[in-house]
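Milestone M4 deliverable, item 7.
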Amino acid sequence: MKNTITRREWMRRLAAVSTLAALPNKDGRLTLKLSRDDYQDAADAVAKLQKDMAEFTASQPPTHTPLSVLFDESEDETQQLKDQ
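Output delivered:
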């Protein structure tokens, strides 16, 4: 199975990235100016977005264990092989 995407999928992804790049941000965080009347709606939207992101993260498979954790790096017990 090849890891290729169709032209339509490529254009959809490019449009999504272009849309995100157009949003106002500071250091990678969205910055939006709100009126006092919209504050509660914005707070609800942020809470829903955080909940959705947490659910998505929880649904992902666990990350791979780094090899450095699997093997002990000390060589105190290593013995030299002798020529036979």
